[in-house]
Amino acid sequence: MRIEQIMLRELRMRLRAPFETSFGITQDRRILLVEVIADGLIGWGEITTIESPSYNSETTDTAWHIVSDFIAPVVVGQDVSAAGEFPALINGVRGHYMAKAGVENALWDIESQQKGLPLWKLLGGTKEEIACGVSLGIRDSPHALLNTVEEELHCGYQRIKLKIKPGKDLDFVRAVRQEFPDILLSVDANSAYRLEDADHLRELDKFKLLMIEQPLEWDDIHSHSRLQAQLQTAICLDECINNERHAVGAIESGACRIINIKLGRVGGHSSARKVHDACRTRKIPVWCGGMLESGIGRAHNIAMSTLPGFVLPGDVSASSRYWTEDLIEPHVEVTSGGIISVPKTAGLGYTVKRELIDRLTVRSRTWKDRVQVSA
Ligand code: OSB
Ligand code: MG
């Protein structure tokens, strides 16, 4: 596979509703897409950074910088026999997992087209349907939250995840649990608590939660192991896990019983597979997290979710929950049973709407062999 051209674009897309987490409110997304041409085929990837360094340390602008100055110039013109060789090409770039993932995943799209296989089959996926949940942003009142939960359950979603933060936690979870005693329910704190809050977090043990996602600091596996020892509820790590080593360390130190795999956060499909395999060997269930992606990131998430260790419903939801018009066709739809059917065609399995993408693009940069042709 000879990498002939890389195009990086930034799009502006407005979510249908603002999304509030412990670190802030998001509605206007700055989405980065990567389009790679190799052997005459076109592959797409999405860089799943958010706009500020408040989920992890990457942002839309750091990713733009790293791809522009350290990834695209090194990678364009290179010959690789498979997408899995991409990480070795950029071995010298520390961190910046999401920036790397956007480029690597475009190569996986190309390799799957070349082999005439759906991407999920190339990755080793085994499932033709994936189970879906939703992640609900923080609401003003428990009452407002109950209404949303009811709507999402009506749509068929199999698991409800509530974003929480100090002051907006126990009352909200209690209200939902009282109204819906038997649903699969979890919470996600996005690092809003400290180990000293253990007594407070133990109150959550009353609500039969499937998991508490990333309660403590984004880079602190050790404190999670101290907290897990004091909780009945399973901790799920999100922010802390960037690669297989982190996953193994977290599992062996008892820091979590579940892991959320995000393709961007772990640096792309190669690393995601390794994290998945490490968890599976150790009987740790995994599920696919989301980053308010466009359809391109979502299509990659769907492919990854077909691997056999993805046994819990993911934050992979219908296009219409996020966007009035998504970047792919058909839009991702979820059945009344809370399932997405995995596409059967070669590659990503969705058509990329190039005209719409052009319309939403606010800046782009192209690398062709070793020469940058436009800015
Ligand atoms: O922690 O899972 C998270 C969105 C942005 C940043 C972090 C997270 C999230 C979500 C949304 O929970 C998941 C989605 O629906 O895409
Ligand atoms: Mg999370």
Labels describing this entry:
375 residues, alpha/beta, Enolase-like, domain 1, 2 domains, seven-stranded parallel β-sheet, five-stranded antiparallel β-sheet, 12 helices, 16 strands, binds magnesium ion
Structure description:
It is a single chain. With 375 residues, this protein is an alpha/beta fold. The protein folds into 2 domains: 3-117 and 351-374, 2-Layer Sandwich (Enolase-like, domain 1); 121-341, Enolase-like C-terminal domain (TIM Barrel, Alpha-Beta Barrel), CATH 3.20.20.120. Helix content is 31%, strand content 24%. The strands form 4 sheets. A 7-stranded parallel sheet has the order 5-6-7-8-9-10-11. It has a 5-stranded antiparallel sheet with strand order 3-2-1-15-16, sandwiched between helices. Helix 10 (269-281) links the parallel strand 10 (258-261) and strand 11 (286-288). Helix 1 (60-75) crosses helix 3 and helix 9 packs parallel to helix 10. The radius of gyration is 20 Å and the shape is globular.
Overview in brief:
This protein is an alpha/beta fold.
